[in-house]
Amino acid sequence: MQKVSLSDESRRAIDGTTPGGVLEDIKQLKKDYGTDSDRLITPEERKTLELRLHRMLVWVGVLTPFEFELGNKKLPLHEIVWDLLAKDCLTEDEKEYVRKLIAKLTAHERVDEDVLHNSELTEKEAEMIFHEASGLMRAILSLKSLVGQKNACPVKHSVNKRRVEDAQSWLNFLKQIT
């Protein structure tokens, strides 16, 4: 193993250093210069975030926001999307509600993109906005798939109704025989 030669000044600095002293120095540097999250993002970082937001599958692995504020009301967005996904079919009123929700979420996602593009943001703020926008994209795509997929409601309902009627007629038949 090769021995590293240090200057006298470096050796004196290292000899007088303790783990507690290093932590003190780091804390002082953070106070003096701020943390990275307090630093404004550069135009290159802004462009990278915008490009990441417009990638094909940016929403994969991103959670739908658990709560989201629309019109000064906190909506349990994650729960709403989950409940709608669990339904077999949607009524026309529910579909209209979903369409309105999609429009509002899309408008908010566009505002997030505009803020990300035009505002001076710290790294922390930019990441928060990026995650919110990608989470909204996830919710929007899930909701759009609901409106398109769940059109077979009357057919499913009539099939299920017919099955129940058939089962009841068989039970009535069996009661008459016994």
Secondary structure elements and pairings:
Blueprint: H1 8-15, H2 19-33, H3 43-53, E1 68-70, E2 73-75, H4 77-86, H5 92-118, H6 123-149, H7 153-177
Antiparallel strand pairs: 1-2
Helix pairs in contact: 3-6, 4-6, 5-6
Number of helical elements = 7
Quaternary arrangement of the chains shown? single chain
Structural class: mainly alpha
Listing every helix as H and every strand as E from the N terminus to the C terminus, the arrangement reads: HHHEEHHHH
Helix percentage: 55-70%
Radius of gyration: 29 Å
How many E strands? 2
Low-confidence spans: none
Question: What share of the residues does DSSP label as strand, in percent?
Answer: under 5%
Distance between the termini: 95 Å
The best one-word shape is elongated
In short:
The chain has 178 residues and is mainly α. It contains seven helices and two strands; from the N terminus they run αααββαααα.
Describe this structure in words.
With 178 residues, the protein is mainly alpha-helical. The chain has a domain at 41-153. Helices cover 69% and strands 3% of the residues. A two-stranded antiparallel ribbon has the order 1-2. Strand 1 (68-70) and strand 2 form a beta hairpin. The longest helix has 27 residues, at 92-118. The relative contact order is 0.11. The model has no long low-confidence stretch (mean pLDDT 78).
